[in-house]
UniProtKB/TrEMBL annotation:
Belongs to the ABC transporter superfamily. One of its GO terms (molecular function) is ATP binding. SUPFAM superfamilies: MOP-like, P-loop containing nucleoside triphosphate hydrolases. This is Molybdenum ABC transporter ATP-binding protein. Pfam families: ABC_tran, TOBE. It comes from Bosea minatitlanensis. The lineage of its organism: Bacteria, Pseudomonadati, Pseudomonadota, Alphaproteobacteria, Hyphomicrobiales. PROSITE patterns: ABC_TRANSPORTER_1, ABC_TRANSPORTER_2, MOP.
Length: 365
């Protein structure tokens, strides 16, 4: 059996706060998701070595960084970890090239790979910035240089703590494809802290939900986002369906792309998509309507036949809402309705229904 990418079980008291977290992740990008103060940064600090846990272990791809039972606690500089924080923290007096190579100097000479710099420049699209100093870079460019610097230290794991939180939407959009390439093309696993669900939905392969110092749930992203039992818990992600999609064609006249997904086809109003492109789409549970028959004479373009697979507990104020999971062509689609609507339609497990999704509600995170 292959070792998990991350194997963590730690207990540590910080004042009144108890971090008591354990999870294993097989993911290339493991997102730590949770409310402010839930313990995400504390967990990153335990992995990074800034917090020495009172008990527990931290293993990365089978390598032990911490095992208190065996008296093993590697100091931070021996852990070979790369860090990217909310602010880029570049050296202002050094050029981009010097900032990038700063990390490289700490790699033992025998392990340095000469082609690494070219790979990093290409991956992050920063080759044209080498001579500039950080003062002449945009926030997004600074952050890409910070990622490059961390990568050039050839870490065994990259820790990214809210790396996009300080950027505006345009800069975030510019940097996200680079993080996707990093996830898919470089063999370095990533721990990514975020409380932004769109980032998690787009980037994560595994999600760890952190709740008051504990791990509330851990699993593949689509599974965690669609779990009905999590949907009503405070601090847990709002229920949504995440689907792998491929663009079939693009209707120029109406600016509509047709997407094939395992749950069925969707038309979405999104420019700049080209046939063959692969992407993730997300549909919030509250953006889906249900009908007992295929509706006629509506504006909705996306109507998917399915069956009720699971009905969750009632939640919301006074138990006014209910989450349901449909089976659409073998794929799960989560829906949030008022309890009254569910009762009016006499919804029960196994009942055939039609899910209606407005094109403008299909998100491409
Ligand atoms: N040194 C400390 N002494 C006492 N309490 C601490 C200490 N460090 C952190 N805490 C508490 O531990 C809890 C978790 O903090 P942490 O920064 O890990 O949360 P977080 O999920 O990263 O939050 P945010 O998203 O706001 O950054 C908080 O309640 C915080 O006040």
């Amino acid at each position: 059996m292959t070792e998990p990418v991350l194997d963590i079980a730690v207990r540590h008291k910080l004042g009144d706060f108890l971090l008591d977290a354990s999870f294993r992740s097989q993911g290339r990008l493991t997102a730590l998701f949770g409310a402010s103060g839930s313990g995400k940064t504390s967990l990153v600090n335990v992995i990074g070595g800034l917090i020495r846990p009172q008990s527990g272990h931290v293993r990365v791809e089978g390598e032990t960084l911490v095992d208190t039972a065996r008296g093993v606690v590697l100091p931070p500089h021996r852990r070979r970890l790369g860090y990217v924080f909310q602010e880029a923290r570049l050296f202002p007096h050094l050029t981009v090239r010097q900032n990038l190579l700063f990390g490289h100097w700490f790699v033992p000479r025998a392990l340095r790979k000469p082609a690494e710099l070219d790979m990093v420049l290409d991956l992050l699209g920063i080759g044209h910035l080498l001579k500039r100093r950080p003062g002449a870079l945009s926030g997004g460019e600074k952050q890409r240089v910070a990622i490059g610097r961390a990568l050039l230290a050839q870490p065994r794991l990259l820790l990214m703590d809210e790396p996009l939180a300080a950027l505006d939407e345009a800069r975030k959009a510019e940097i996200l494809p680079h993080i996707e390439r990093l996830r898919d093309e470089v063999g370095i696993p990533i721990v990514y802290v975020s409380h932004a669900l769109t980032e998690v939905a787009r980037l994560a392969t595994t999600v760890v939900v952190v709740e008051a110092g504990r791990v509330g749930a851990c699993g593949p992203t689509a599974e965690i986002l669609s779990r009905l039992d999590l949907a009503s818990r405070p601090g847990a992600p709002e229920a949504s369906t995440l689907l792998a999609a491929e663009v079939v064609d693009f209707d120029e006249a109406f600016g509509l792309a047709r997407l094939a997904t395992p749950a069925g086809e969707f038309a979405i109003a999104r420019g700049a998509l080209r046939a063959g492109q692969r992407l993730r789409v997300r549909i919030m549970a509250s953006d889906v309507m249900l009908g007992l028959a295929p509706p006629e004479g509506t504006s909705a373009l996306n109507i998917l036949p399915g069956r009720i697979a699971e009905i969750g507990e009632r939640s919301g104020e006074g138990g006014s809402t209910v989450h349901l999971r449909l089976d659409c062509a073998g794929e799960a689609l989560v829906v949030r309705l008022t309890a009254k609507s569910a009762a009016n339609l006499a919804l029960a497990v196994g009942k055939p229904v039609y899910a209606i999704v407005k094109s403008v509600s299909v998100e491409t995170p």
